[in-house]
């Protein structure tokens, strides 16, 4: 076994965001992937790094990164609720791809 | 690029009616993706077993022809074939070595981590044979050696469950290239009983 060669090849593969390739290959083998998260507007959950974290209640929210926080701050409450719904649907749709 | 090859003798239990086909056409890969290390031609090789690989080949062929409904063997004789397997070191994953296990474990962990980074999880459990299949495709691996636990009749009858390997096996993909056809020969023939 040429460990150095195989290790270098493996490192190279994982260095280039291989998730889509892996998901496709596993799906071809009969695997089915679902969201790690279940959207519940009244519960906080931990998203992947650099993704959006939010909790919504009627008058209560957190944004998980600065960009989202700024966007939400610019919105009034009514917009914010819509915006959150949009985030939720976007988020769930994205995770289910 | 220069790549070193090593050669190793492997033993495969089968039946007299399969002999001509194997001698003429070489071995065929099993179609069973779920078996131990995935699809390929399986050989017993020297390693950790208490018996020699020829004996294990015989025992395995005996097990395979047991009809559990009729409670009888479907074959009268078993033969053991020896073949020389050419192992290109860059296409060889040796799971009997720490380095090989490290590669496999890292590949598995990093694969799952990459998928989870997209917020996804599998609905079913990941199987070793599936991880290995994808690893083969990505890294170009054609030969895998591993110590595994195989239940032969004696373990089955004695109800021996174990996670401690009892044999060393080699699974070969691309048999036309990696198994030297002229080297294939019958080395043992026994009545099944």
Please describe what this structure looks like.
The complex is a heterodimer of chains A (97) and B (193). Chain A has two domains: 1-33, no CATH class; 38-97, no CATH class. In chain A, 52% of the residues lie in helices and 11% in strands. Chain A has 97 residues and is mainly α. Chain A contains four helices and three strands. With 193 residues, chain B is α+β, with helices and mostly antiparallel strands. Chain B has a single domain (5-191), classed as Phosphoenolpyruvate Carboxykinase, domain 3. Chain B is 32% helix and 32% strand. The interface between A and B is medium-sized, with 34 and 36 residues.
Order of helices and strands of chain A: HHEEEHH
Q: How does the helix and strand content of chain B classify structurally?
A: alpha+beta
How many strand elements of chain B?
10
- Main β sheet profile of chain A: 2 strands, antiparallel
Fraction of residues in helix of chain B: 25-40%
Count every helix of chain B, treating DSSP H or I runs of 4 or more residues as helices: 6
> With helices defined by DSSP (H or I, 4 residues minimum), what is the helix count of chain A?
4
Q: How do the strands line up in the largest sheet of chain B?
A: 2-9-8-6
Give a topology summary.
The complex is a heterodimer of chains A (97) and B (193).
Chain A lengths: L2 H12 L4 H10 L4 E3 L18 E4 L2 E4 L2 H8 L3 H20 L1
Antiparallel strand pairs in A: 2-3
Chain B lengths: L4 E10 L1 H10 L15 E4 L8 H12 L1 E2 L4 E2 L3 E12 L3 E3 L3 H19 L3 E3 L5 H12 L3 E6 L4 H5 L9 E6 L2 H4 E13 L2
Parallel strand pairs in B: 6-8
Antiparallel strand pairs in B: 1-5, 2-9, 3-4, 5-10, 8-9
């Amino acid at each position: 076994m040429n460990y150095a060669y195989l290790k270098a090849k493996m490192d190279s593969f994982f260095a280039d965001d291989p998730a889509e390739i892996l998901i496709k290959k596993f799906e071809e083998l009969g695997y089915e992937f679902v969201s790690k998260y279940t959207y519940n507007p009244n519960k906080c959950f931990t998203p992947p790094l650099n993704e959006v974290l939010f909790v919504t209640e009627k008058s209560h929210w957190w944004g998980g990164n600065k960009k989202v926080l700024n966007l939400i701050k610019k919105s009034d409450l009514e917009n914010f609720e819509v915006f959150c719904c949009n985030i939720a649907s976007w988020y769930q749709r994205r995770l289910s791809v | 690029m220069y790549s070193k090859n090593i050669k190793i003798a492997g033993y495969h239990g089968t039946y007299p009616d399969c002999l001509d086909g194997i001698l003429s056409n070489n071995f065929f890969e099993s179609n069973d993706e779920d078996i131990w290390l995935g699809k390929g031609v399986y050989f017993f090789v020297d390693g950790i077993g208490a018996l020699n690989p020829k004996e294990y080949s015989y025992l395995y062929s005996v097990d395979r022809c047991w009809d559990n409904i009729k409670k009888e063997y479907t074959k009268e004789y078993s033969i053991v074939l020896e073949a020389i397997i050419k192992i290109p070191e860059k296409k060889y994953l040796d799971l009997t070595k720490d380095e090989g296990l490290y590669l496999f474990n890292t590949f598995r962990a990093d694969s799952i981590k990459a998928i989870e980074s997209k917020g996804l999880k599998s609905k079913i459990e990941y199987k070793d044979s599936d991880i290995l299949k994808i690893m083969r495709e990505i890294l170009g691996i054609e030969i895998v050696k591993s110590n595994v636990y195989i239940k032969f009749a004696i373990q089955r009858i004695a109800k021996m469950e174990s996670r401690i390997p009892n044999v060393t096996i080699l699974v070969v993909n691309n048999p036309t290239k990696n198994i030297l056809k002229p080297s294939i020969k019958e080395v043992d023939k026994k009545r099944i009983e």
